[in-house]
Amino acid sequence: MMLELGEPFATLWQGRDVFAEVDRLEGETYRALEGRRTFRTLVNGEGFFIKVHKGVGWGEILKNLASLRMPVIGARNEWQALTRLSAQGVTVPVPVAFGVRGNNPAQQESFIITRELTPVIDLDVLTHQWLEQPVSAVVRRRLIHRVASMTRDMHAAGINHRDCYLCHFLLVGDVATAMEDGFAGTHLIDLHRARYRQPVPARWRIKDISGLYFSSLHMKLSRADIFRFLRTYYARPLREVLATAGPELARIERKAQRTLRHHLKHHAGSAP
Questions:
Q1: Active-site residue among 17, 124, 163, 174?
Q2: Most buried pick, 14, 130, 143, 166, via CB within 10 A?
Q3: Which percentage of the chain shows pLDDT scores above 90?
């Protein structure tokens, strides 16, 4: 068993069965899948989000492995990603508590608790609003710079997201203020599938960047917008990026287009 408890849980659950205490928590369910539930609860008047993993079973593990996908068997991935990214200065939800018990990966139980972020809007929703209420080029550039910087720093920390879309960048606070301060309140969320390897293999960097590109197609990015992202992400002059990263950029484009075709096939009439 492994436990990491911050306040207020370290005091509230001292000497108690922590997993039983987690099971007693109640609140609004945001997502419920087989073996995993995400819900919001209040403790001493403060909001927290809890993800509880109850074991996925060997069937799910083998199905993922057969598809060459790494199965998510608990909350450890997210805990490690949050703590590593926070240490590297990437803005993420504050991890407060984590626990895991059981050696059998198919039956392992775990949980993670983070502080609630509020008020929030995800960048996918925000940028779709801009289609009806356009913002200045300066504001668009600030957002692109912020997302590119966060993605660069995430990869520099050895983390790849695996679900890197605009909807997983959460803006906390007042939108008008964010437009002026460079979207400093943007947080990276939903890291339960994240993996740590240093350095991040090119394949997984490409997957993350192509996911961002796909999820931003509705923004009708200009060439200047794309070049700004590349300069920021690679932290090199654009001429050097285009000269040295050409094959990688082509792979990003192809991957994004494949994702778009898959999206259109399974969500007919729905724009990304």
A1: 163
A2: 143
A3: 83
